[in-house]
Amino acid sequence: MRLQYAIRRLLKVICTNLKGVVLFIDDLQWSDTATLDLIRSIALDAEIPSLLLVGAYREDEVPESHPLALHIRELGEQRDIVITTISVKNLSPSNVMSLVADALRMEDNESAVETLAKLVHKKNRRERLLCSNVSSVSV
Q: 53, 26, 60, 31: which is closest to 129 by C-alpha?
């Protein structure tokens, strides 16, 4: 509770002095209950102005009974909380080919990068961030 209070106070000071703050938290599917409780306390704290909480998680790892799903439902029932869900699908082989061709500055010759694109697609399970990281390293 003291840690939650301290973090909320810190966010209040930061958010009061800035026009808007985005707090992005990735891999929420691995969050423990204490972390989810902290996020809930931040979201429900009316004294923290201009704060946008953005959370990312793997839908396939969060069934309806998962603690994260329960916390999201609970927050969605609050009067002053708006939850927007955006589902991001995996990339198709042609999407990966375009990313790789762009990274190698070979947009006009995608057939030249086809083999590499297929390998990136296979190794990274079509996930956008991983494919982008591999593509940018390839430059």
A: 26
Question: CA of 100: how far to CAs of 38, 46, 105, 110, 127, in Å?
Answer: 39, 45, 8, 8, 13
Q: Is 55 left (phi over 0), alpha (psi -120 to 50) or beta?
A: beta
Tokens found for residue 38: 């902290």
Diameter of the chain measured on Cα atoms: 58
Question: Distance between CA atoms of 136 and 108, rounded to whole angstroms?
Answer: 18
Please state the φ and ψ torsions of residue 55, each to the nearest 5 degrees.
Answer: -120, 145
User: Any residues with CB less than 8 A from the CB of 60 and at least 6 apart, and which?
Assistant: none
Digit-coded pLDDT (tens) for 17-61: 998 899 999 999 999 999 999 999 999 999 999 999 999 998 888
